Amino acid sequence: MPPPVDAPLIAAEGVTRIFRRGSIFHGRSTVAAVADVSLAVAPGEVLGLIGESGSGKSTLGRLLLGLVPPTAGIVRYRGTALASALPRDLRRRLQIIHQNPMGALDPRMTVRRALDEPLAIHRFGNRAERLERIRLQLDRVGLRAEHLERYPHELSGGQRQRVCIARALVLDPEFVVADEPVSALDVSIQAQILNLLRGLQQDHGFTMLFVSHDLSVVNYIADRVAVMHDGRIVEQGPRKEVLFQPNHAYTRSLLAATAALRT
């Protein structure tokens, strides 16, 4: 286990999240989606979170954003524990990029309205000032003014994900969770979106948790890597150490499976 990150932007301290499932008719049980996880992300860092489907990655990302309350443990932002209801200014600083852009966007909203909504909620400027900001954000993600009045079904998968990225970044957040942001895209489009995210992160300096099951993607974009298995972090450290000199058997099995797929 590496030493703790000095002055982290966001940190989990012994965080657990238990979900209850079943019914009174078929019996009830509990499952720990996240179990006693401690994790810290430094300002301006990209932490790659890898693991199989169902390992708890997405739940941990939502815990760090305050979207899901922990059953036990504490999530801290700049040293202050996150409350169950985040104040407006803090919510603005914590944003998410979803895996499925078609599901994340309201089909009844044009691109302009989808980007205007968070600005209006957070009371940013007047209508003209918001539109100027929206146009700037579209340009940053490689879309043009002609996309403003289009609906999600009128866009390609890559364009929809660019809109989702623009929506997440339009409020200039400090911490972004990118939850499998390229897994639903064609391989050629994946590379474009990864390059876009990497460039935006470097240009604007936001901190990012990049969630993925794809080790090659994480190797490309992350500074450090954390490996999650059955709700627990089993290994974390600098990217090159974790991905090329792993200590944990589970990490080695992931790498072996990836190598097998390439042969």
Structure, briefly:
This protein is an alpha/beta fold and 263 residues long.
Q: Secondary-structure element order, as H and E?
A: EEEHEEHEHHHHEHEHEEHH
Strand content: 25-35%
Considering DSSP H and I runs of 4 or more, what fraction of the residues is helical? Answer: 25-40%
CATH topology: Rossmann fold
Q: Structural class, from secondary structure content?
A: alpha/beta
Distance between the termini: 32 Å
Give the topology, please:
Blueprint: E1 10-23, E2 27-41, E3 46-50, H1 57-65, E4 72-77, E5 80-81, H2 88-93, E6 94-97, H3 101-104, H4 111-121, H5 127-140, H6 157-169, E7 175-179, H7 187-204, E8 207-212, H8 215-221, E9 224-229, E10 232-238, H9 239-244, H10 249-262
Parallel strand pairs: 3-8, 3-9, 6-7, 7-8
Antiparallel strand pairs: 1-2, 1-4, 4-5, 9-10
Helix pairs in contact: 4-5, 5-6, 6-7
Explain the overall architecture:
With 263 residues, this protein is an alpha/beta fold. The chain has one domain (10-262): Rossmann fold (3-Layer(aba) Sandwich), CATH 3.40.50.300. Helices cover 39% and strands 27% of the residues. It has helices spanning 57-65, 88-93, 101-104, 111-121, 127-140, 157-169, 187-204, 215-221, 239-244, 249-262; strands spanning 10-23, 27-41, 46-50, 72-77, 80-81, 94-97, 175-179, 207-212, 224-229, 232-238. The strands form two sheets. It has a six-stranded mixed beta sheet with strand order 6-7-8-3-9-10, sandwiched between helices. A hairpin with a 2-residue loop joins strand 4 and strand 5. The model has no long low-confidence stretch (mean pLDDT 91).
